[in-house]
Amino acid sequence: MSSVLFDVPGPKAIARNRLIGILTVLVVLAVLGWVVWRLYATGQFTAEKWNIFTFSAVWVRFGQGLLSTLAAFAVAAVGSVVLGFVLGIGRLSDHAWVREPVRWIIEVLRAVPVLVLMMLLYYGLPVAGIKMPPYFAVVIALIVYNGSVLAEVLRAGVESLPRGQSEAGYAIGLRKSGVMRLILLPQAVRAMMPVIIAQLVVALKDTALGFIITYQELLYVINQIGNQAPYGSPLIQSAMIGGTMYVAVCLVLSYIAYRMQRRVKRSPKQAAAIGNVAADDEATLTEAIALQSRAGKYDGGNSPGL
Fold first, then answer.
1. What pairs with residue 2 in β-bridges?
2. SS3 label, residue 2
């Protein structure tokens, strides 16, 4: 038996795959066991190392660090999406005097590391007489970098759609702005949603770079508590707790992304008539868009083109 993509494995292949899976699990368990043993052998599980975490003030500092991380991420996430849409639409413009400068802006912003941007904003601007707090340096750097990346994600999503999608829109009188707003962008965002969320998770983890410029986010707190010499310098223990917080926040973000994807897939009957059209079925797509226009869901092509 075979499918479109691969041959169905036979009895020998199934046995071999199971053996490989079992060996992989055993190797992973062995590595984890070795790590736990080394932590135990070096006294990382002793009461002395964990005594500092019995104080409520320590947990308050962890909470403050987590809130600082979320505060920077929330603004950076919204700003990155907005900047990504602006640059992405400019990148798709039919006018070369718009498209080419935007392309160079995206390439330059993507090429500069986030940490370099943060350090330029925090340490470089004072040379020019501009003092920027660490929070704004972190947020602006994250917006600039992740926004440029999301712009390319959006462009790739739009250009991956069949040409018939836009041609059908032009055929019923839509201009470039109407085609982008009603046909291309909704499908591109839906298709690239996993990539967009993955990039936002990267932005969340990149807030830890603010530690370098003294922004008191979660990593700053981890390092601060972990270097308390009177309590045995519990750096590993502090990293375990802080890392658990990072994982929990990323899992929550992933769940929100999953719910968003499920919600995007659910649509009214008219939207379903558009979303379920085959990529090469231009006639049916045109009928669906015409149905939407009769319902008054677009501006009748009066919007200016890009």
1. 7
2. strand
Q: Both ends of the chain: CA-CA distance in Å?
A: 51
Q: Is 300 in a helix, a strand, or coil?
A: coil
pLDDT per position as a tens digit, 240-286: 999 999 999 988 888 887 777 777 666 544 344 344 433 444 444 44
Q: Are 117 and 179 in contact (CB under 8 A)?
A: no
Token look-up 């947990």 returns 59
Distance of CA 83 to CAs 154, 200, 229, Å?
11, 13, 44
* Structure token pair of residue 210: 């603010």
Confidence of residue 141 (pLDDT cuts 50, 70, 90): very high
Burial of 229 (0-12, 13-18, 19+ CB in 10 A): exposed
Report the C-alpha gap between 29 and 35 in whole angstroms: 10
Query: Rounded distance, CA 77 to CA 217, Å?
Result: 16
**Confidence (pTM):** 0.76
Q: Output the six-digit token pair for 57.
A: 């003030």
| CA 283/CA 182 separation, integer angstroms | 17
Closest CA to 89 of 99, 97, 79: 99
- State the alpha helices, DSSP H only, in 112-133: 114-119
* Residues near 114 by beta carbon (within 8 Å), at least 6 away in sequence: 141, 142, 145, 206, 209
Both structure tokens of 117: 């941007």
Residue 164: partners with Cβ closer than 8 Å, 6 or more residues away: 279, 280, 281, 282, 285
Distance (Å, rounded) from C-alpha 175 to C-alpha 185? Answer: 14
